[in-house]
Amino acid sequence: MPKPSPRRDGREAAIQYWFGHEQVVDGEADADCLPLFWGLRKASKIAREFAEELIHGMRSHQSEIDSTIEGALENFRLERLTTVDRNVLRLGVYEMLYADYIPAEAAINEAIEIAKRFGADESPKFINGVLDRIHRESK
Fold first, then answer.
1. What is d(CA 66, CA 83) in angstroms, rounded to the nearest whole number?
2. What distances in angstroms separate CA 94 from CA 38, 54, 106, one per listed residue?
3. What's the pLDDT at 118?
4. Alpha carbon distance, N-terminus to C-terminus of the chain
5. Ramachandran assignment for 54, one of left (phi > 0), alpha (psi -120 to 50 degrees), beta (any other)
6. Cα separations in angstroms, 9 against 53, 78, 138
7. How far apart, in whole angstroms, are the C-alpha atoms of residue 93 and residue 95?
8. Does the predicted model carry a pTM greater than 0.70?
9. What interhelical angle do 45-60 and 62-72 show, nearest 10?
10. What is the pLDDT confidence band of residue 14, given thresholds at 50, 70 and 90?
11. Where does the chain have alpha helices with state H?
């Protein structure tokens, strides 16, 4: 498998951080865990800086991001989603709504690609549908 770009690697690291954190700390991400995470997950300086920007941004806007996702889900609650899908959606919504320098289409595409790598077979289509709805409704 080819080495991902620093941005893709940063996004994947952010998803891995949140995934692990939800498993261990019941969803409450804590900055004190970052050094431990980086001791286990290797990344370039650029990927690491980008991942930390995403991790902190997702944490600081988590309630708004979760509300946005809840509003776009049909017949689902956020808690019922798989941990991977939930956090890929959070990443996509964060990038679309709060990272002005990332075009929404790029955020959606990156989320789909990460869902292909870490999610279930149906995850990419599901992620695409939810993020596309949020994007259309946010215009």
1. 13
2. 22, 8, 12
3. 96
4. 37
5. alpha
6. 13, 25, 27
7. 5
8. yes
9. 80
10. very high
11. 6-25, 34-40, 45-60, 62-72, 83-98, 104-118, 123-138
Cα atoms found within 13 Å of the Cα of residue 72, Cβ hemisphere only: 25
Give the integer Cα–Cα distance in Å for 134 and 67: 11
pLDDT digits (tens, 9 = 90+) for 51-100: 999 999 999 999 999 999 999 998 889 999 999 999 999 999 999 999 99
Structural domains of the chain in order of their starting residue, each with its CATH number: 6-138 (1.10.940.10)
- How far is residue 90's CA from residue 111's CA, in Å, rounded to a whole number? 9
Q: Cβ–Cβ contacts within 10 Å for residue 100, how many?
A: 7
Give yes or no for a contact between 19 and 84, defined as CB atoms under 8 angstroms apart: yes
| Confidence (pLDDT) at 20 | 86
Q: Is the pLDDT of residue 28 over 70?
A: no
75 neighbors 33 (Cβ within 8 angstroms): no
Return mean pLDDT, the chain. 91
